[in-house]
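Hey all, quick one. A colleague (J.T.) asked me to put the adenosine-5'-triphosphate job into the tracker so the inputs and the structure tokens live in one place instead of scattered across chat threads. No bug as far as I know, just bookkeeping. Sequence used:
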Amino acid sequence: MADIVIDRVVKEFGSFRALKEVSLNARDGEFVALLGPSGCGKTTLLRIIAGLETQNSGRVVIGGRDVSELPPRKRGLAMVFQNYAVFPHMTVFENVAFGLRMQKTSEAEVKRKVGRSAALLHIESYLDRYPAKLSGGQRQRVAVARALAVEPAVLLMDEPLSNLDALLRLELRTELKAVLREAGTTTIYVTHDQTEAMGLADRIAVMYGGKIEQIGTPLEVYATPGTRFVGGFLGSPPMNFIRVACSEGAARIGNITLPCPVASSEMEIGLRAEDASLAPIGSGIGFDVRVVEPMGSHLLLTGSIDGQLTRIVVPPTAKVAAGERVGLTVDPSRLTWIDGATGRAVV
Ligand code: ATP
């Protein structure tokens, strides 16, 4: 069993509190992505799990063993960090074989495991080269191959695909997911790329300001954000927020009335761009279309509801022109109601 328990971890740099009592569990074999904007504390948290940074308080438990005081090499994990350090004096083959040699693996097994890992990362053709002769993206793949070669029970990764072009990134993402699932590796993966987090993770921990705002499956954090921040951070375009006033259990939005989940308060309605559809002419919520962008698979409409910026996606063949007022229908069960004062979702 290699589950990870992070228990009320606090990290301060001088007077700056980078992590504010962060708790998080990753089950054995689970893939958890730490997702959030720059500076929210993702890397710091990963470095604490790895033992590269010491927390001010709190514990890290891996596979039932408190590793809080142990050095990195005694924590029983493999890691790939942003700077993807590879050894310059070793060939790619020896770099990938490094961990296996440390484990005194037989030569035949080293060959087999390096070969498999290299094939997965598409680096077989330069196993004889030295890192100085590789591009940044190729070196990054060597670092990932080296971590995977030892078949670790726990793998920590910090933006391991960040230096790759879009197509290779997508391909490696898919393969990484398959191989980690098959191996049953418990993975914690730092990224600021929501598509990567959504595609890879069993659960996503959305971080903001040194805290975990919400943790859940990709669908949960996307469809039922717990806070305004999470709704606005996930999704492209991000969730729309439309201010409404609730009174006597109802809110008016662009000439229609919706039942309010709470009485008499300033609320915001969170509406996903794909959760509105065009209504028959003369009905629905009035939406003033300002810009129409054909995206191939859909049209992105930017405009306003009650003067508030709103983005909607509709089928690519929809007949809509800039400058028109159209009607929108929404399914009330798909709306997120946010308390305007606290920024928290009301359920
Ligand atoms: P990024 O995606 O940009 O790497 P991140 O979410 O990984 O961001 P961290 O690198 O964990 O963020 O940093 C969290 C906060 O702690 C930032 O405000 C950063 O400036 C600060 N910080 C990190 N390391 C140190 C350090 N060694 N000394 C002082 N402040 C630090």
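Adding what we noticed when we looked at it: Residues 121 and 172 are 7 Å apart (CA to CA). The helical segments are 42-50, 92-102, 107-120, 136-149, 166-183, 194-200, 218-223, 228-233.
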